[in-house]
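Input record (one chain):
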Amino acid sequence: MSGNPSASLGEPELVGPAVVALGGGHGLAASLKALRCYAGTIAGIVSIGDDGGSSGRLREEIGVAPPGDLRRCLSALATNDSLLARSLEHRFDDGSLRGHPIGNLLLTGLSMAAGDLQQAIDEVARLVDAAGRIYPASQVPVTLIADSDNGTLTGQVNVELAEGIRNLRFDPIEPPTSEAATEALRNADQIVIGPGSLFTSVLAAAIVPAVRQALQESSAQRVFVANIANEKGDARGFGLAEHVQALTDHGVPIDVVLAAPGVASTDVPSGTVVISDVAADDRWSHSPSKLGAALSGVYQQSLVG
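The corresponding structure, as predicted from the sequence alone:
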């Protein structure tokens, strides 16, 4: 398990907090990389509502859970330099497999052979020496449904491309979540929510009923990591206050909001926003090292606050 660096000779090793990250896509992968900087134990709980790209094709053609976000998270936690670890993100350029990453096909094949998605995830995690555990937010694939300014929308792609999204929900209505995933939330010292597309990544994981209940009952510090910018995706036009309000409207409790300079809003409740430069050089995504330092600082502050 990757966590804090080893202590000096003769001194006890400091054990970092148990941290769980929720979401999907590139945002969750960035959070998981950040957790490797300070966490003692790491878990990721990943939305499996994707229906676009390679994941959507595999879901439609074979009927499996979409593997793409799971693959990204396993890549983020890989600690060895094996050919397999380096190849998870490699995409085929030609033929009938064009556009499919090797990791998606591996997860799909293993889950079909085992008859169990979690076994497939755990096996890939073992092969790449993952620095933590990855759990799907639900044990069955879900279809995202939401209301919008243009009526009811169905499917992750349709929701992500729309504006005025509200009242996100699922088909099936109450998809089951594994006991191992909810136990990780119950045992966490800190829970990181986001960054990522608000409705199709963050809320798509956080409002799975058993996940949301565990969040509401948790004594952990719950940190929402705000996006660096919001011009793209399903929350375009939303500022920080609107993001926090959407989380509240969907029953997701937040203790601290971590935002980059220029993102914060005076409309967010006083005392809940921590400002830190967590942006990568592209000024769009998060720097895992900066984000890890900021999250560690927020957690340490909670111990003395």
